[in-house]
Design a protein that fits this description.
Largest sheet: 5 strands, mixed
Radius of gyration: 19 Å
Shape: globular
Enzyme class: transferase
CATH superfamily: Thiolase/Chalcone synthase
Catalytic activity: malonyl-[ACP] + acetyl-CoA + H(+) = 3-oxobutanoyl-[ACP] + CO2 + CoA
Number of strands: 14
Subunit structure: Homodimer.
Number of helices: 11
Order of helices and strands: EEEHHEHEHEHEHEEEHEHEHHHEE
Main location: cytoplasm
CATH class: Alpha Beta
Distance between the termini: 39 Å
Subcellular location: Cytoplasm
């Protein structure tokens, strides 16, 4: 079951700036193979990744978010917003939310600020929340950040996840505008399936495990993923949601998609989804080779990198889609506006 959110008449969320950030520590496949039973070829052929960035000791999600958020504000030439939404799976601590601290460090004052938890679909769920604030006239401008220090919850000895996940942040500034102008967020298609939540999870550390009064097994404190089943559901739901978003946007079909920006899960998923949608290779945006899977940050980070590299230009009709734990997924469309790149 998916939820479709139509663009309200007269007042829509319009993207005016983007920013991205990855921590300076770069880890190549060769560095990982030194401690894991794998090879550079195995990693590249199964994931499409050659390197990824990881936080250094003492660096938290808020540090990544502040960097990306500041760049997005600069891109939009907008020093002030009315609200901040932070999508993350790796908050600095369970309580309080990380967003208010990020807002304070960015000098935004006492604006509304809250976290959204939708794992790798976090940016799209955050986009829906930001668009809702604008449509309801609660805010005229919203800073949306997706940031994850995913390596802090990945078992460094588990080659199925340690070679894929990485750290980074991406951000977008949204303002109130009209549905027919460049940058306006199109209809949102969102869905979830909690019956399959066990496919992507960190089993321990929450209230269910803590309420038992028993210490968590060490392995249950790490992220785990059932790769084969996750692949199947990711392909199915991203493909279906993408088709629905394009149809609801009133586009003629996938031939109208100039650029396809999917959550950078792994190269196999990206290729399969794009192939099923019949989107030509030249229209597929990707940066997974150099940054890995950065969780919820992957789509805005991809947009920032693609815009800076000239792969994404004003006027391009853009299709976004993501899939992650929950299970949760989503898709939407927009026409890329003129934005500054930093």
């Amino acid at each position: 079951m998916t939820t479709s959110i139509a663009v309200p008449p007269g007042r829509s969320a319009v993207l005016t700036g983007v920013g991205g950030y990855v921590p300076p520590t770069r880890v190549t496949n060769e560095e990982l193979t030194a401690r894991l039973e794998t090879s550079d070829e195995w990693i590249r052929t199964r994931t499409g990744i050659t390197a990824r960035h990881m936080v250094s000791p003492g660096t938290a999600t808020s540090d990544l978010a502040v960097e990306a958020g500041g760049r997005a504000l600069k891109s939009a030439d907008e020093p002030r917003v009315d609200a901040l939404v932070l999508a993350t799976t790796t908050p600095d601590r369970p309580c309080p939310a990380t967003a208010p601290e990020v807002a304070a460090r960015l000098g935004l004052g006492t604006v509304a600020a809250f976290d959204v938890a939708a794992v790798c679909s976090g940016f799209l769920y955050g986009l829906a929340a930001a668009a809702g604030l604008i449509a309801a006239q609660i805010a005229d401008r919203v800073l949306l950040i997706a940031a994850d220090a995913f390596t802090t919850i990945v078992d460094p000895a588990d080659r199925t996840t340690a070679v894929i996940f990485a750290d980074g942040a991406g951000a977008a500034v949204l303002r109130a505008g009209h549905a027919d102008e460049p940058g306006a967020v199109g209809p949102m298609v969102l869905g979830s399936d909690g019956e399959l939540g066990h496919l992507i999870e960190v089993p321990a550390g929450g209230s269910r495990q803590r309420s038992t009064g028993l210490a968590a097994a060490p392995e249950d404190l790490f992220f785990r993923m059932h790769g084969r089943d996750t692949y199947r559901h990711a392909v199915e739901h991203m493909t279906t949601a993408s088709r629905q978003a394009v149809e609801q946007a009133g586009w003629r079909g996938m031939a109208d998609v100039d650029r396809f920006a999917a959550h950078q899960a792994n190269a196999r998923i990206l290729t399969t989804v794009a192939d099923r949608l019949e989107i030509p290779e030249g229209r597929r945006l990707s940066n997974i080779e150099h940054v890995g899977n950065t969780g919820g940050a992957s789509i805005p980070l991809l947009l920032a990198h693609s815009a800076r590299a000239g792969r994404l230009a004003a006027g391009h009709r853009l299709l976004l889609t993501a899939f992650g734990g929950g299970l949760a997924w989503g898709a939407t469309t927009l026409v890329w506006p003129e934005v500054g790149t930093f």
